[in-house]
C-alpha cells in the first residue's frame, strides 16, 4: 500500500497508513543513498516511567563526508512511519555540503528494524506514540553529541543541531523544536501534519480542487458506478480492479479512493486524469479506464488495505501498515472520510468504517486503545 509521505499540500499529507511503502519506493536504489550502513544504540523503551528501565536497539545512520570537524552543524533527519534504510541523497546533502554539516538519521521506534518487540500484538504497541518518539530523538541527540565530544576529547561542547522531517516526521520536527528548544537551533517541517483532524473531509475536497472540474466529474461518476455495482456484484467489480483479495467493501473503497488520491498527492495527476477525461469525451467505459489505471499504478501493496493482513502481528516488511494504523487510531486520526456533499470518494468511506477498523485491528487483545480512539 502506498503509505504516502511526501506531500505537496498539508491537506494531502497523511494517508491512513497507506503511506509507507511509497516513501520506500522513492529511494530503493542504493545509489540514491549517501549511506546505508546501520549503526545502533540502546534506547529507553518507556520515557515516561521512572521504574521501567527496559531498552531496545534503535537503528541510526551517519554521514560525515561534508562535516566541518569538529564544530560544524548537525542535521538530524527524522524518519517517520516507515522502515528507515539509510540517508537518502536528497536536498539535505546539498545543504550539508554548503554548511559543512554532519547528517544523522534515526529510525522511528517500532518501524523497520527498530522494533522493541518480536510480535506486534496490541499490548506490545503501548509504547508506540509520537510522544515517545520525540523523547527518542532527544535522547539520541544527546547520545550522539556526547559520542562526538568523546571522539574529540572534549566535554560540554554543543554543536548546532537542526531537525528535518516530512509529513508525519515533519510534524515531529516541528514538535521537537517546540518541546526541546534547548536541544535544537531550528526545524524544517515540510508538509507537516501538525494538526490531528478526526473527520478529515478536507482531504477529499482538496482532491476535487486539484483535479479540476472535468477530472473531478469523471472520478465522481466512477464512484457512483462502483457504489451501485458493489451492491449487485461486488466480486466482479473488485476483480475488475485486481482487488479480489479485499473481501470487505470498506477496505476496497478506501483502496480505490487512495488509488486516485496518490496521483495528486505525488504530483502525477495527468497520468490519472488524461485517460479518464479522454474516456468520458469519447464515450468509452469509465470504469474500465479507471481500472486500467489502478492496475498499472496502484497494485503493489494492495494487501495493506486488507484488514486480514493488518491484523497480522508478526514482524515483517509489511508491518508498517499495522503500526501506522495504530498511531492513526490512537493519536492522529486524519481519517480521510467522504465529505457529506460533493464527495469524490464513496460515502461509505466514513467514520464508521475507520472506527470499525480500529476496533477490529486492535481491540482483540486490549480494549483501552480503542476507548482512546473514541474519546479523541
Ligand atoms: C546495548 O545493550 C546491550 C545489552 O545490554 C549491550 O550488549 C550493548 O553493548 C549495548 N550497545 C550499545 C551501543 O551500547
Ligand atoms: C584524544 O586523547 C587520546 C589520549 O590522550 C589521544 O590518543 C587521541 O589522539 C586524542 N584524540 C583527538 C581527536 O585529539
Ligand atoms: C465525525 O463525524 C461523525 C459522523 O460521520 C460524527 O458523528 C462525529 O461527531 C464527528 N466527530 C468529530 C470529532 O467531528
Ligand atoms: C453541494 O455541492 C455542490 C457542488 O459543489 C454545490 O453546488 C452545492 O451548493 C452544495 N450543497 C450544499 C448543501 O452545500
TrEMBL record:
Protein family according to the UniProt entry? Belongs to the peptidase S28 family.
- UniProt lineage: Eukaryota, Viridiplantae, Streptophyta, Embryophyta, Tracheophyta
Which residues belong to the signal peptide in this entry? 1-21
The molecule here is called: Serine protease EDA2
What is the organism of origin for this protein?
A: Kingdonia uniflora
Q: Does the keyword Transcription apply?
A: no
One GO molecular function term of this record is: dipeptidyl-peptidase activity
Q: Which InterPro entries match?
A: AB_hydrolase_fold (IPR029058), Peptidase_S28 (IPR008758)
**Keywords per UniProt:** Glycoprotein, Hydrolase, Protease, Signal
Q: Which GO terms describe its biological process?
A: proteolysis
**Domain of life per record:** Eukaryota
Q: Name one GO cellular component term.
A: vacuole
Amino acid at each position: 500500500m502506498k503509505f504516502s509521505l511526501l506531500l505537496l499540500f498539508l491537506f494531502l499529507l497523511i494517508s491512513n497508513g497507506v503511506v509507507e511503502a511509497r516513501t520506500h519506493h522513492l529511494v530503493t536504489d542504493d545509489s540514491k543513498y549517501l549511506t546505508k550502513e546501520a549503526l545502533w544504540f540502546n534506547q529507553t523503551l518507556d520515557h515516561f516511567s521512572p521504574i521501567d528501565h527496559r531498552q531496545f536497539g534503535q537503528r541510526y545512520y551517519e554521514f560525515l563526508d561534508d562535516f566541518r570537524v569538529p564544530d560544524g552543524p548537525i542535521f538530524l533527519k527524522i524518519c517517520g512511519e516507515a522502515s528507515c534504510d539509510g540517508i537518502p541523497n536528497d536536498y539535505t546533502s546539498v545543504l550539508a555540503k554548503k554548511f559543512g554539516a554532519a547528517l544523522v538519521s534515526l529510525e522511528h521506534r517500532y518501524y523497520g528494524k527498530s522494533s522493541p518487540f518480536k510480535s506486534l500484538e496490541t499490548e506490545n504497541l503501548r509504547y508506540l506514540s509520537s510522544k515517545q518518539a520525540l523523547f527518542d530523538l532527544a535522547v539520541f541527540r544527546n547520545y550522539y553529541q556526547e559520542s562526538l565530544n568523546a571522539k574529540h576529547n572534549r566535554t560540554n561542547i554543543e554543536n548546532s543541531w537542526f531537525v528535518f522531517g516530512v509529513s508525519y516526521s515533519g510534524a515531529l520536527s516541528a514538535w521537537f523544536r517546540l518541546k526541546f528548544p534547548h536541544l535544537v537551533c531550528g526545524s524544517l517541517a515540510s508538509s507537516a501534519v501538525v494538526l490531528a483532524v478526526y473527520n478529515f473531509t478536507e482531504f477529499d475536497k482538496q482532491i476535487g480542487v486539484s483535479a479540476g472540474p472535468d477530472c473531478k466529474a469523471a472520478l465522481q461518476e466512477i464512484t457512483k458506478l462502483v457504489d451501485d455495482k458493489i451492491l449487485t456484484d461486488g466480486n466482479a467489480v473488485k476483480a475488475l480492479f485486481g482487488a479480489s483479495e479485499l473481501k470487505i467493501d470498506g477496505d476496497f473503497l478506501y483502496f480505490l479512493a487512495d488509488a486516485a488520491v496518490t496521483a495528486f498527492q505525488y504530483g502525477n495527476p495527468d497520468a490519472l486524469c488524461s485517460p479518464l477525461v479522454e474516456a468520458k469525451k469519447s464515450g468509452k467505459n469509465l470504469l474500465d479506464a479507471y481500472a486500467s489505471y489502478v492496475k498499472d499504478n496502484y497494485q503493489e501493496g494492495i494487501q495493506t488495505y486488507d484488514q486480514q493482513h493488518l491484523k497480522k502481528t508478526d514482524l515483517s516488511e509489511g508491518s508498517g501498515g499495522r503500526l501506522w494504523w495504530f498511531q492513526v487510531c490512537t493519536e492522529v486520526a486524519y481519517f480521510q472520510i467522504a465529505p457529506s456533499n460533493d464527495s469524490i470518494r464513496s460515502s461509505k468511506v466514513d467514520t464508521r468504517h475507520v472506527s470499525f477498523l480500529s476496533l477490529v485491528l486492535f481491540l482483540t487483545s486490549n480494549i483501552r486503545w480503542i476507548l482512546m480512539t473514541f474519546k479523541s
